[in-house]
Amino acid sequence: MSSGASSTSRRLRRYHTRVMGGARILSISSALCALALLAACTKAPPRSSAPPQAPPAVASGRTAVPAPIETAELVVREQQSGRYAVRIRSGLPSGCAKFERIDVARDGYVVNVSVWNTIPSDATVACTMIYGIAENTAELGGDFVRGEAYALHVNGEPKLSFTPN
């Protein structure tokens, strides 16, 4: 073998080693990325403390969905009797979304408010991409103990707290 052929052979071996080494690193990197992606996709998303429950009945051809909440504001109805309400601005994410209702339930010192929209049950219905706002007020009642702290959750998310005077 001539020295020129030997030199070419050595260069080819070095090139092959570099290329194959890089391919191994690329292969290992790809496998690690795939494992990280798989791990991220299989973790359960965090759940809020009290997910809203679907209303029992809605209009035919429509499905109830939790409304996106823009704001929640406490309203004092009667200071002496301790009656309260909550003023809620909720989103209507498309031209097909319609405000449905507000449910209020109390569990000790937590007031759970669920705000519902309805959307067409048929996913093929074309809806305009216009974001609207619904403004509603829900009565919370008046049987709150003075001096005790209460939390208000809307669609499972803590929104505010209040202490009746």
As a percent range, the share of helical residues equals: 10-25%
From N to C, what is the helix and strand string?
HEEEEEEEE
Sheet with the most strands?
5 strands, mixed
Can you count the beta strands? 8
Continuous helix count: 1
How many domain regions?
A: 2
Give the overall form: extended
Written overview of the protein:
By secondary structure, this protein is α+β, with helices and mostly antiparallel strands. It has two domains: 1-43; 62-162, no CATH class. Helix content is 24%, strand content 41%. The strands form two sheets. Strands 1, 4, 5, 7 and 8 form a five-stranded mixed β-sheet that branches. The longest helix has 40 residues, at 3-42. It is extended and about 90 Å long.
Write a brief structural summary.
By secondary structure, the chain is of the alpha+beta class. The chain contains 1 helix and 8 strands, in the order H-E-E-E-E-E-E-E-E. Mean pLDDT is 78; it is low at 31-49.
SSE topology:
Blueprint: H1 3-42, E1 62-66, E2 69-78, E3 83-92, E4 98-107, E5 110-120, E6 132-141, E7 150-154, E8 157-162
Parallel strand pairs: 5-7
Antiparallel strand pairs: 1-5, 2-3, 3-6, 4-5, 7-8
Main traits of this protein?
165 residues; alpha+beta; five-stranded mixed sheet; three-stranded antiparallel sheet; 1 helix; 24% helix; extended
